[in-house]
Amino acid sequence: MVIIEQLAEQDPSAALPPTLDALVDQVQRMLQSGLDSPDAPVTTRGKFVEPLFFLDEE
Fold first, then answer.
1. CA dihedral for 47, 51, 57, 58, sign (positive or negative)
2. pTM (2 decimals)?
3. Measured between alpha carbons, how far is residue 55 from residues 20, 43, 47 in Å?
4. Torsion over CA of 39, 21, 15 and 29, rounded to 10 degrees?
5. Strands (DSSP E) found in 1-58
6. Rounded distance, CA 25 to CA 14, Å?
7. Over the stretch 32-52, which tens digit does the pLDDT of each residue have?
8. CA dihedral 16, 18, 21, 22 (to 10 degrees)
């Protein structure tokens, strides 16, 4: 799972783009930027979910 950024902020000064096309463009740019950045290291494996048995390396 990759979490890039929340779209809806509680800050009233943070506005979403005015049109759906502009929102789609912004989201595509944000996703591409996230995919182009280096992977973040996982330091606490299984902290929020149990390890998936079928992904365990044996």
1. positive
2. 0.48
3. 38, 17, 16
4. 20
5. none
6. 17
7. 998 999 988 877 766 666 666
8. -60
